[in-house]
Amino acid sequence: MRIAEHRRFDRVEVRVVRIVNPATLQVARLHNPRETFTLRLIGVGGDVPADPQSIEQVKHQIAEQTLLLVAGHTSAPDESACWAWAYLPDGRLLNEWVVAEGLSPASDDPPHDLQWWMGRLERRARSTERGIWRQKTGP
What backbone torsions phi and psi does residue 34 show, to the nearest 5 degrees? Predict the structure, then answer.
């Protein structure tokens, strides 16, 4: 089933094929692994450069795991990409973890119900200098 065959979906299980940046993943459906699509994490800003250290942290967190995408919707004009909340097998929300670890800023695009919470997680990551908010020292 192609992502373009439905504009909204309730639940889809996927495997990560490639990490573009902490907010953008290339994924494949479990039931059709040859068909891949781009996943944007709702509430996570994707306009930061792909920091190799951040990508490694995300890779370590999701290695060999199935993600459950919930309440997703397509975003690209050709519907080859989607926005979704992504849950790890242990029930943690990947979107929340990425922002809380300071791997990417919070985003309100597209608008969502947890904007205040994601903003709070970003402020906490900034104040504790986590991830991309860490102070650079030396040359």
Answer: -80, -20
pLDDT tens for the 139 residues of the chain, in order = 333 443 456 688 999 999 989 999 999 988 888 888 889 999 999 776 667 888 888 888 888 889 998 877 655 555 567 888 999 999 999 999 999 999 999 998 777 888 899 999 999 999 999 998 987 665 5
Structural domain includes residue 137: no
Q: Number of structural domains, the chain?
A: 1
Could you list the residue range(s) of the whole structural domain that residue 73 is in? 3-127
Closest CA to 124 of 116, 56, 136: 116
Within a domain: residue 139?
no
**Domain membership flag for residue 132:** no
Q: Give the pTM.
A: 0.83
**Closest by Cα among 59, 62, 46, 29 to 106:** 46
What are residue 74's phi and psi, to 5 degrees?
-75, 155
